[in-house]
């Protein structure tokens, strides 16, 4: 077995004067920042299409993540259309 296998993830230091953070902390911080965001595509629509595609989840964070990706695709498509005109 490889040496160090199964060890906890080492802490991440974001600065010299800050407390050490776990590897999952940046993701948690990012998700907290996105809670105030008002989406173009509502979570209910994203959840419906996820369910229709066979992806059943009760975790609202997953639905919100998929919704954000949909939003990015919509914005990029709008930018491409605007660039061609």
Automatic annotation (TrEMBL):
Source lineage: Eukaryota, Metazoa, Ecdysozoa, Arthropoda, Hexapoda
Pfam families reported in the protein's UniProt record: TAF10 (PF03540)
Xref: InterPro entries: TAF10
Protein name stated in the entry: Transcription initiation factor TFIID subunit 10 isoform X2
Keywords: Nucleus, Transcription, Transcription regulation
Keyword Transcription regulation assigned: yes
Keyword Transcription regulation in record: yes
Naturally occurring in which organism (per UniProt): Neodiprion lecontei (Redheaded pine sawfly)
Family under the similarity heading: Belongs to the TAF10 family.
PANTHER family (alphabetical): TRANSCRIPTION INITIATION FACTOR TFIID SUBUNIT 10
Location of the region described as Disordered in the Swiss-Prot/TrEMBL record: 1-25
Compartments it resides in: Nucleus
Principal localisation: nucleus
